[in-house]
């Protein structure tokens, strides 16, 4: 089997996220309107399919990594799991004591929380070892500012959908996330240009 490249991994990840958002916004709400438990179940679980594909993609990515990369992946997954478990435990006790009124739909946010924790932790680990996030020797993948901008577009799509549906809370959350990723994309672009200029200077001096 051919080794999965960084660029291929990142594009497939973004594609699976896009499919997930489309199914979540357009297919999942239909589960509340159809009759029959089988149809309801299939529609309700439709967004899970691209996430299962993402799990397999991550497993393949970790399996094909070298020992240092595997260590960083597994440490990041461990931190993400512990953080999510701790927050779930706190939320469960508060809900059981009727301090917080938590709806069952909050479980949808467990996976995004784990992925965000995993991504941040792995980024810090990679930086600690003098690398760049999602980068391997000879395979830089998609530039960071492009990835951030694509994620911002996905967040903006959800924000627009929430705005059309008059869901002010969801609109505020995803509009803020889109703005944050746009700001991050700008910072990454500035960093990319500076690194490119520094490399050009080094070549001229050499």
Give structural notes.
This protein has helices at 6-27, 37-45, 48-63, 67-96, 110-128, 144-164, 168-205. The protein is mainly α and 206 residues long. The longest helix is centred in the last third of the chain and has 38 residues, at 168-205. The protein folds into three domains: 1-64; 65-142, no CATH class; 143-206. Mean pLDDT is 84; it is low at 134-139. It contains seven helices and no strands. It is globular, with a radius of gyration of 20 Å.
Number of helices: 7
Question: How much of the sequence is in beta strands?
Answer: under 5%
Low-confidence stretches: 134-139
Q: Helix/strand-derived class? A: mainly alpha
Largest sheet: none
Instruction: Using the CA coordinates, give the radius of gyration.
Output: 20 Å
Distance between the termini: 40 Å
User: Outline, from the CA principal axes?
Assistant: globular
* Residues in helices, as a percent range: over 70%
Sequence of secondary-structure elements? HHHHHHH
Tell me the number of structural domains.
3
Brief account:
The chain is mainly α and 206 residues long. It has helices at 6-27, 37-45, 48-63, 67-96, 110-128, 144-164, 168-205. It folds into 3 domains: 1-64; 65-142, no CATH class; 143-206.
Task: Label this structure with key terms.
globular, single chain, 3 domains, 7 helices, 206 residues
List the SSEs and their pairings.
Layout: H1 6-27, H2 37-45, H3 48-63, H4 67-96, H5 110-128, H6 144-164, H7 168-205
């Amino acid at each position: 089997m051919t080794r999965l490249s960084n660029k291929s991994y990142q594009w497939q990840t973004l594609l699976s996220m896009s499919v997930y958002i489309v199914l979540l916004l357009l297919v999942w709400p239909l589960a509340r309107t159809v009759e029959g438990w089988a149809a309801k179940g299939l529609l309700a679980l439709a967004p899970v399919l691209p996430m299962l594909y993402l799990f397999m993609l991550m497993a393949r990515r970790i399996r094909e990594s070298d020992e240092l990369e595997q260590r960083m992946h597994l440490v990041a997954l461990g931190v993400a799991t512990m953080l999510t478990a701790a927050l779930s435990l706190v939320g469960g006790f508060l809900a059981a004591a009727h301090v917080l009124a938590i709806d069952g739909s909050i479980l949808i946010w467990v996976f995004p929380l784990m992925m965000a924790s995993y991504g941040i932790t792995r980024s810090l680990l990679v930086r600690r070892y003098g690398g760049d996030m999602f980068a391997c020797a000879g395979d830089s993948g998609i530039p960071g500012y492009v990835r951030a901008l694509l994620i911002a577009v996905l967040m903006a799509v959800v924000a627009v959908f929430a705005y059309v549906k008059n869901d002010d809370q969801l609109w505020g959350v995803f509009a803020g996330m889109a703005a944050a990723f746009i700001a991050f994309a700008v910072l990454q672009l500035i960093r990319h240009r500076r690194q490119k200029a520094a490399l050009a200077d080094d070549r001229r001096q050499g």
